[in-house]
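Review form for a predicted model. The reviewer records the input and the model, then writes brief findings.
Reviewer: anonymous (R2)
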Amino acid sequence: MRLSSYEAAKELILTEEEIASFVGPQPSNLLEQIEQILELEIIGSYRNFLETFGAGIFAGVKILGISSDDFESPSMLNGINYTLTLRKEIGLPSNLLVIYNPGNGELFCLDFNQIKAGEPEIVSYMPAIGMGLEYDAIADNFGEFLYEIVCDDL
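Model under review:
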C-alpha cells in the first residue's frame, strides 16, 4: 500500500531526529478554540500535523502551527498569531492561514476557499503590490507541501 504524501513526510520527520525539532502534540480542545478565533475549520493533513507535531523546524525550515497553548502570543513558530497579526496589519484574507514564510515577501498559506478531497489547497500569497495575481497554487494539500519540504532538505 502506498503512503499518502503526509504519512510519508511524517515518517521521514520521525526518522530524521537530528534535523527535526518539533513542539509536540496539541490537544483537540485547543484546536477548537483556534478554529473559533480564526473562523476556519482546520481539516485534513494540517489538522493531523497540529495534533502530532504542533509546529517546528525541519532542516532549518520553520513550519508554522501551534507552538503553545498561548497562541495569541507571538513566537517564531506561532502560525495562528502570525496569521491574526497579518490580517490586521496587511489585510491578509480571512480564508488564508499562514504555514510558512521563506522571508522573501512571499507567504505560503492554506486556502480554505479551495478545498479538494477534504484538504485546503496550498497557495503562495504575495501581499498586494498593486498589480498582478496575489495567489499562486503551490500544492493540492498540506501533505504534498510538507513532503516536498522534507525531501528537498534531505
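Findings: Residues 79-90 form the longest helix (12 residues).
Further findings: DSSP finds five helices and seven strands in the chain.
Recommendation: see findings above.
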